[in-house]
Amino acid sequence: MKFLNHQEVQFKKTTLALGLMFALGSTSAFANSFSDVDANDNGKISKQEYKNYVDDSGMFDDWDDNDDDRLDKNEWQQADKEAKHFDKWDDDNNGYLSKDEFNEASFQERDKNRDDFWDVSEWDEANAEALAEVNFSTIDDNDNGKISQNEYSQYIENENIFDDWDENNDNRLDKDEWDEADHKNKDFSAWDSDNNGYLSQKEFEEASFSKYDKDDDDFWDVSEWDENIADWFDDVFS
After folding, report:
1. pLDDT the model gives residue 97
2. Model-level pTM?
């Protein structure tokens, strides 16, 4: 399933990367690609390149509401509402995250082979996980740990996803319009429930939701959402 065309995917992907791949998104700036962070074009991101990236983005400063060059837990929760990294990354256990602690810990979190560099696979893996985390919490409007059909449909409408694909504004998608979003065109016929050669917004919302509601309980839990995103991300970037 594709919610975004390739240009939008790149924007979303790199915006999430700006959030340090831990669902700590910032909208202040974004890199265009791995190569934007890899300043010397050697195919790896060093700690210094990463630090420069964080500094240039202004994300730490955006969260530092009182401008004391450190983050307390309340400031941190703007980005990570569960504060699941805060205590782990607070290396000196003083109740604050300094910029150095933030840069070091967030880099090490994704340096899987501990070679002091991020390669492309480490970058991509981080983006995929961030995409799943950010969007689940965004769509789960009542924070009950599940996404309902209504929450999902509201997300589709708020993001204008269907409307963006509907190039002729006739409130339905033909196969050519769908192909812009789903380049393998694998779901069109199955989701066209009335077999009229078009996908209405209702058909799209109901069929795409049902596809990943594996236990048919009318909700997506985190595992179902993860499968959704993993399938979609692999499809888009493969």
Report:
1. 94
2. 0.53
